Amino acid sequence: MTTAQGRLADAGKRPAMSSRPRRRPRFNSAYLFVAPSVILIAVFIAEPILQSGWMSLHDWTIGEATHRFVGLANYTALFHDTRFWNALRVTVVYTWSSRSGRCCSAWRSRPPAQDDVVFLAAASRYFFRSSRHWSSSASSGSFFSTRRSA
Fold it and tell me: For the chain, N or C: smaller number of CB within 10 Å?
């Protein structure tokens, strides 16, 4: 038998099992460290968001035993309401004007030797960080800040 024929014959055979025992998969302990955060996020962030989404699809009146499912009718009524569009416009104007006013007041009080590029980068970082704060606090329903500015 030639070498090529020997290789073909050996290719069909199963390799011999090694004498080493198979290793068990290791438990990754990182899951234990991440689990409390995941549980807290699920309970205090994800569940209220899902619950409010579910409640928005119903005619929810406090004190009633049953709540009638209305689907997207609440949203169509909201988008046809002029008070909603006025409130949205006032909120956007107030938010952007107060944030841009903060950035401009910080620009006037900067040291004269500071580089403009570095300052603009820091001001934009402050602006976007504070706008994330306002969007998250507005979505959670806490419209008034309890922190007093100096």
Answer: C
pTM above 0.90, yes or no: no
Question: What six digits make up the tokens of 93?
Answer: 């104007």
* In a domain? residue 66: yes
Q: Residue 54 belongs to what domain range? A: 29-80
78-80-81 Cα angle (round to 5): 65
Q: Is residue 100 part of a domain?
A: yes
The tens-digit pLDDT sequence of the chain (150 residues) is 566 565 555 555 555 566 777 777 777 888 999 999 999 999 999 999 999 999 999 998 888 899 999 999 999 999 999 999 999 999 999 988 887 776 666 555 555 545 556 666 666 666 665 555 444 444 444 444 444 444
In a domain, 132, yes or no: yes
Classify residue 4: in a domain, yes or no.
no
Q: Write the DSSP string, 1-55.
A: --HHHHHHHHHTSPPPPPSSPPPPPPP-THHHHHHHHHHHHIIIIIHHHHHHHHH
> Sign of the CA dihedral 107, 110, 112, 117?
negative
Q: How many domains does the chain have?
A: 2
